[in-house]
Write a structure and sequence with these properties.
The chain is α+β, with helices and mostly antiparallel strands. 23% of the residues lie in helices and 29% in strands.
């Protein structure tokens, strides 16, 4: 017998029907969740190929030379001319219980929050999670496997002048597309780099027929495939971990 069969045999001995059903579903979720579309090797090759053919190029540039970014001559804060996105601000920390009693440091200050959301759909009785090979300029290897939606409210308002992020209609507060909210919590970002920053983390269930077509940079993953890639360097981004850790 394999581990899934062993656990199912143990679950069958539980008298509480609801508890037994919940455990059996969890066993299937983690150990028997065969992907209806892609093997783990398929998914690894998919993002590796996207990374290899990416036309994106990054070059270090002096702060005063950045387009549409300014340095305040009095405060020294760095900000975008639109007033959106984020600012780099200075903070003084005193009476600390850390290694030293106090210090000064710059922080990323973003007055608005963002949405980090994953869509899931059941295929052949198995939950599949729609994830995105998303390029972020600070990422190791540029592209990482990211939530279905990873956007600030500035992105959602198209302050950058681009298009509305894909799938945002499933995570809106009002007028959302058909979905069932499984998980919705505000989670704090890294307090060593961000000043008073939280993001709304969401997991929503969507019927396959309600989903729009999506481009090649999206793929369906099972939970066990996500867990397998967490054991490898720089594939799964931290927001995917944060959203799915409650399962």
């Amino acid at each position: 017998m394999n581990p899934a069969d062993d656990l199912k045999a143990a679950a069958a001995s539980i008298d509480d029907e609801a508890a037994r059903a919940k455990l059996e579903e969890y066993i299937d979720l983690v150990l028997s969740d065969v992907n209806s579309f892609h093997t783990l090797d398929d998914l690894r090759t998919w993002i590796d190929d996207i990374r290899a053919r990416s036309p994106i190029r990054l070059d270090r540039k002096n702060i005063p030379d950045l387009r549409d970014w300014r340095v305040d001559p009095e405060s020294g804060e760095i900000y975008h001319v639109s007033g959106e996105f984020f600012r780099i601000v200075g903070v003084s920390i005193t009476n600390s219980a850390r290694e030293v009693s106090g210090w000064d440091q710059p922080f990323i200050y973003q007055r608005e929050a963002g949405i980090l959301g994953i869509v899931r759909t059941r295929f052949d009785g198995v939950w599949h999670y729609l994830l995105h090979a998303k390029a972020e300029p600070g990422n190791t290897l540029l592209y990482q496997i990211s939530p279905t939606l990873q956007a600030t409210y500035s992105n959602l308002k198209t302050a950058h002048g681009g298009r509305v992020p894909r799938f945002s209609e499933f995570f809106l507060e009002e007028g959302a597309a058909p979905r069932t909210v499984v998980y919705r919590q505000w989670l704090a970002e890294d307090g060593g780099r961000f000043y008073l920053k939280s993001n709304l983390n969401m997991l929503v269930e969507v019927r396959a027929e309600d989903l729009p077509e999506f481009p090649d940079e999206y793929r369906w993953f099972t939970l066990s495939q996500i867990k397998a890639l967490l054991k490898e360097d720089n594939y799964i981004n931290p927001h995917v971990r944060g959203i799915l850790c409650h399962l």
